[in-house]
Amino acid sequence: MDRLKTYIAENEEWLKECILAYVKKHGSTPDAIAEEWPDFFSGIVGTMPSPVHSDQEQRKEDVLRLFQSLDTPALILSDSFEISAANKAAINTLSLGDDFLATSASMAVADLVPWLADCVQEFFPGERDVGSVCRMDVAAPMIYGEKYFSVSVSKFSEVVAGFSGYILTLEDISFRVETEKQLSRERNRVAHYLDVVGSIILAQDASGAITMVNRTGSEHLGYAENELLGQNWIDLMVPVEQRDEVRDYFYMIFSGQTEIDDEYTNYVVAKDGRHRLVHWQNRVLTNEGGNVIGVLSSGMDVTEKRAMEEALSEKELWLRNTFVALGETVLILTPDWNVLDANPAAEILFGMTNEELSELSLLELHVDRPHYAEFLVKSQAAFDKGEKAQFEMALRRSDGTLFPADHSVSLILGDDGLALGIVNVIRDISARKKAEQVLQESEEKFRRIFESIEEGYMVTDLAGDVQMVNPATCRLLGYEESDLLGKSIDSLYSIKDERMHLRRQLVEKGAIRGVQVQARRKDGSSIVVEANTHLIRNESGNAVAMEGTFRDITDRIEAEGILKEREKQYRAFFENNHAIMLLVDPRTERIIDANPAASDFYGYSVDDMRDMTMGSINALTQDEIFREMQLSRQEGRSYFIMKHILVNGDIRDVEVYSGPIMVQGKQRLYSVIHDVTQRIRLEQKMKRLATTDGLTGVNNRHNFFVLGSRELVRAKRYKNPLAVLMLDIDYFKSINDTHGHQTGDLVLRMLAAASTTTLRETDIFGRLGGEEFAVILPETGLQEGLEAAERLREVYAGLEARVEESVVTFTVSIGTTVVRTSDRTIEEVLNRADEALYKAKRMGRNRVERG
């Protein structure tokens, strides 16, 4: 209203002229004035002079009103840092006094608030860019103690409502500063604790970046703290092959799909490249809103501990499996020599079950009492020396037959030195004894052949000093072996140049055949020899020695006569021998000769066999023959196991003993053949009995565990799922009691047959004992395993065993589980499936439960 009065007063003359002109025109008639007043007033308004400075004053009032209404303490400073205005919040905060508002004169900041003037002048010592803002935290001494303010100062970009200079705001941050100090003290205490604990402590944010690591962590990982902070934990520390798994694990933590307090074990790679196994305890870190912002992990290096545990576990498993799976017979005996336990190999060897063997005294397995007494004496003599006893002594099978056996008898001692038991390892050496006899005969035969060779054999080093000679060399040259060893070969040449020429050719070609030289005998006489020689090279291909054979050809006619005589002797030996013998050309595999025993065995005449090749009688392919030759070398055997075809089409398993011989100056392959068909078939039958359940024909308990252990190792190696089922026939005892054990056996066979038909070819099915069966499903997850179990359950429920006029049906309860990363043995998985099986029993039977 004051502004309107002022405005009217300033335009009084104009308003007077307008009113007088209107009255003069229309007279003083009130009605006329009332009628034309709107037009007149509109004309006044249209010609009204513009106000001078009214908007600027209004704007200044509005700015001051807004400035005073601010809750944030604020000051307006002039360019010379004098206080042009202060709002009430600033007056109260800085204790300027209520009368400050009534003061119209500007006052210097330094006079009113010295500490504020210092910081303003420090950060604005000269001109600043228009619009620039400076913020600083300042400690302010107050009459009731020190406070902290965040001070913001900015310069006006233009004159605003008559003001220019700076606008200054204050934010009381005393609580925040004190809180940060307290947090800093707490952080220092926590950091000290984390540095002295023996665990690795580290924190990651949601992106996986390391935000904190303690001194123990730095030392274990080999990095300085600044090398770790800000780095991605998974990319830096986790082995490449485990990164996806660890990322999935942390994703589950951040997405809330796993327990808040969780444990996890994985390998980390230290700075020096070593892989360390760390067991972590993880806890999520959340903000005030409950959102996950990171993970705090405490880890213990369990590399050595896990290695020891795994070694102990593997040793325990190895010992347990070795006893069951060992091909050799093992008897565990009590200190008074009674059988306590026997492995499956012992059951096969003696023809008795473990239960039957466990009821015996060891005496009952020996030939007679004196024989048993000798066994005890030999064993005790070794025990008294602190050694294990090893000797050969025959034993008796359940059918009364005797067999030669190799015994290894060891005493089991406790920590107190007292005997806990005795281990008797038995190996049936019947085949070995027979082989030794055959080998002895073969050795004698080949020794006679070797001794009949007239060629000399000699090995020298590269300097020419003799290292080895055969008896023929001594005979040909007239020396004793001791005379030749270490002697230079130069002394054996009648013509010195021949040795130099021979050596030069040998170095150039590496081997020389059919060279003739004159050799000097011990008595000074000379003979002409035909020599074959070559360099002996090591694995690197470097020559290390020289080797050669030679023969005396001084009197070739006499030599030919000797050869003919030898051939007659060989022919008589060859044809009159009862062993099957063949003489073969090694290059073409053509049968050069066959003895009568070979003709009788194969059914061909000797003449017919001389027109045949080994391929005519060999039933194996070339690949199979090659694999058998490799296997023979690996096992150190002196024979090959082949399959030969007789004239009537029968295929026989044979052992072939072969060696090279020279016949009429040509190399031939001399083979002695033994028919071992019966022995191999018996071995195969014994293997089948050792791995197959006698009633149902499926895998027995031992073989099931062997195959299951292999599948467990394969599944964990390739990280494939593996499901395991445990099956048990419901009320099976009632079936036996009601219908008899024959019906019970029929039910077991029907279940096994239906299982084999329903399951995949790659699945493993076995009988663990009684009416209990188990299934291993490779590459099968839990849901697929449950579906497979349900299919089996429905198949079993539809089976009917018909006995005379009765129809017997049955149901099966099934427990299902899958392999977990923590499972170390197949027994652990089966135990979990077994628990699920008994849960199915408790829940009413004829159902599938998971474990």
Automatic annotation (TrEMBL):
Domain GGDEF: 720-851
SUPFAM superfamilies reported for this sequence: Nucleotide cyclase, PYP-like sensor domain (PAS domain)
Domain PAS residues, every copy: 186-257, 442-495, 566-609
Every PAC domain range: 262-314, 389-441, 513-565
Database matches in InterPro entries: Biofilm_reg_signaling, GGDEF_dom, Nucleotide_cyclase, PAC, PAS, PAS-assoc_C, PAS-like_dom_sf, PAS_fold
CDD domains on file: GGDEF, PAS
Protein name: PAS domain S-box protein
